Amino acid sequence: MSxxxxxxxxxxxxxxDEVIDLLADAAGSGxxxxxxTKRAMRGEIDFAEALAQRVATLRGTSVKVLDDVLGAxxxxxxxxxxxxxxxEAGGYIIAVSGGFYEILNPIATQLGLDxxxxxxxxxxxxxxxxxxxxxLIDAAAKANFLTAYAKKxxxxxxxxIAVGDGANDLAMMNIxxxxxxxxxxxxxxxxxxxxxxxxxxxxxxxxxGRRAS
Length: 213
Hints:
Blueprint (H helix, E strand, L loop, with lengths): L4 E5 L9 H9 L2 H12 L5 H10 L8 H8 L6 H10 L3 E9 H11 L3 E10 L2 E7 L5 H15 L6 E5 L5 H6 L2 E5 L3 H6 L2 E3 L17
Helix pairs in contact: 1-2, 1-4, 2-3
């Protein structure tokens, strides 16, 4: 593979956490949101509806909790090594998240990712409104972001690798040249070309001919 793109899901893939769950814990709605998150990840309820319901529970919470949540987020083992390996091999690594830009942006910047997108959390006067802003980043949007980035870089989709774990990743995995289920839910495991069952993103590197270090 010459020029290529690796696209990663974020929550439970690039990071070990589900950010909405961390935010909900801070807002006091942790149990309710955790149940919705699990159902959404299994594809049992519509993503847009589940996102709206979960974000609504944050209404009235101070945006200051973002600092606490960011401090609690942990990178998945091998994430830095994967980024280094992709760049060393002349590729691009991007991230697409059904989570939140306010958390992804500092993480992606720190990691040196090439591009990223996520949902925005609306706030007024330093308090969450319980709504998102900007375009909805759902399964279709993830696939569209990969398609647009590949077109921009003039790289065929056959030279892309999509890494994800949940139902929301299936659309981008279906169009990628290689789909990697990462500690994935059952339906994603079945759809993926290959599966990685150890939480180490460096294990993706051999699929584009590199050894992460």
